[in-house]
Amino acid sequence: MIQHNLTLAWRQLVKYRLQSAVSIVSLAIGFACFALASMWIKYETTYDGFHRDADKLYFLAADHSEWGKAGDISTGIQSVFCDTVYKNCPEIVEFTLFEHSHYQLKEGQIEHCIGCDSSFLDFFDINILAGDRGFLLRENEIAVTRQKAEKWWPGEEPLGKELEDKDGKRLLVTAIVEGWDTHTNFPFDFLTGDMDVRKTYYSGGEYAVRLAPQADVKSINQRLDTLNINFFYWDEYGYRNHLGHNGGFELVPAKELRHRINYEQMEVQIHHIYLFALAGGMLILCGLLNYLTMFVNRLFIRQREIALRTVFGATGRNLTVQFLTEYGLLLLIAAFFGLIFMKWVLPAFRQLAELPEGWGFFYRETLTSMFLVLGVSLLISLPVIQFFRRQALQNSIQAQVGLFSYSNFRKLSVCLQIGISIFFIFCTAVMMKQIDTLRHSDIGFERKNMGIFYIHTGRKWTNKIAEEHNERMEATYSFLKQQSELTEVIKNRPIFPLYGQTATVINKYSLLTGAAVNPDMVEDRYSFKLFTDKDGSFSSFYNLRLLEGRFFEESDDDNAIILNESATRQFLWESAVGKQILFGNEPYTIVGVVKDFHNYGPTIPAKPCFIRKNKDDGTISNCLIFKYHPGTWETLKEKFAQQFKKMDIKYTLKNVEAEYENLLRSEKNLQLLLGVTASTCVLIALFGVWSMIMLTCEQRRKEIAIRKVHGATVKDILDMFFLEYMALQAVAAVVAFPIGYACMKPWLEQYVVQT
Length: 755
Fold this sequence. Notes:
There is one protein chain. By secondary structure, this protein is of the alpha+beta class. The chain folds into 3 domains: 297 residues, no CATH class; 202 residues, no CATH class; 214 residues, no CATH class. The chain has 20 helices and 25 strands. About 6% of the residues have low confidence.
């Protein structure tokens, strides 16, 4: 019986080979896209999921949106803050503070290191295989993971071995620990008890907590969001310093941490991965609907065959099994080709998704996803096939003219298929147009053919080091001015990408529209970004747009400033020119307002900024910004590398346009992924409608012949089909476009610049 059903099923697939091939290809690509996206989502949302009570594992994060960080948070928390947070959160049952960093050894390789204490070992259940916890108390002693020890000293006893870092410091191995899964936000190769975060007030570390089973994280975060911490201390030079944070703390689940702190570094952001999964699901739905519609059409074409089988004793169960065998055989063939397609794209996919897992993980997750899709597809299709099998049998006895007649079903199925395709193509087109808009739109400042030259400086300054640095800056500036590839060079800090030195930190500066400033009143301060412009060259360099007032003139003193639009909104001013603000206890007069410049990325609104005339405030500049002729970037890079190697100057060179494009890396990768699925969807729609017409022509061949006999031309017959399907497409479009608009409007609203 099974062989008989398989034989009949294969004959039906071969009989309608072209339609079957279209369905197999579309379903195979849909299966592959959905399986890859499902695997990707599972991997991205299970980081640190192997820890004990992973669902209750959280990391403390602070709001750092004022620094222009795309993820808006930082997990580097000062130890003095952690104590206050713990006192305000009785729901915390266990906690640890550790320092995760990259450590460079003498040979040049970079290893992952965690500075910790005994609470870290207990919190994460670190198993000591050899040695003891003494390395936490003794200087220059470390505990190496078993996996790394086997790699460094294969077949040897690692205890007593030494490692040397790039500065010549020797680290003695006195313990071996069991490393944990690499699927983590904080991998490590060795542990040390030497932790800077415990030594100073301002050093930051990772604060991990485990909450009580019934803890309400939402209420805890509401409590932490308004938690103000202010702390004053004296540094080693005898200066009084302020350390504070005005709200913005939150507990982030360990499984979500990667998508918050590594937002900019991810090749594809998590919400874009969800869109890719949705696209794969839509592709499967379109392919299933395409084949299911043709399958039901064939049931009506084969209605006499169904009637004869019933007369000769075939039961409803027999017929249903036979039709499900035909349907299931096509799904299995599509799944097989989907696996082949996945094997073909897997190397590129692993690189894009940054998945380090072995092949077993991919095949296991792929088979799981595909069998799940196959099962769901059969369950959805079973009642449809069962219903229309009965309808086809009834139609062979008495033609149906009601709501569920064959003619109405065919029209409905065509509308659904075309509607899904239009919806999919419309949404994809909007996404691609938005990405193109982000890449080429006006963001308030010029960014094409621009570069940034950043000289590395030491952390501790002396007068001698400052003089040497200024000499290097002057030599670098002179060299850049002599290059024919450059059209303009100025000494200034860039608008984009932002360096930490460009920000006016809330703990350093205050901007008030009132009386004298109390430096201890942190709650009265505003956070602005500070830029300087000595002679108007900065505004001209970036082609800033003036909205009100004027740019700087030679007659202006050092207390003249220019605000951006966001700054005026901060003070609720309709007109800002002529007004004064207090900055560092000095009055500053506003002479102009410029258009907002979006230098934080496409999803973050412009921050309040102001530009002041260049004042000698003792700061040491280490940035040069320049413009170059198109097509000369690679030549410049080679020139700089040769020249500054001779001058022994360590520097970082950035291309402004490339840096901004890098912020759109996830959108561009999404564009690539959706381009494949959208193209497939277009082919499904085209071949689906073509297959429908072919089946209709086969069913209406007698009618076509009679029309030809009575004088109908080829044009008349084509018009008959053309007008019918154009009307169906119009109905589908009327429904699909509003739904597509409703879906895409919220997606577009996340961007500050919209198509």
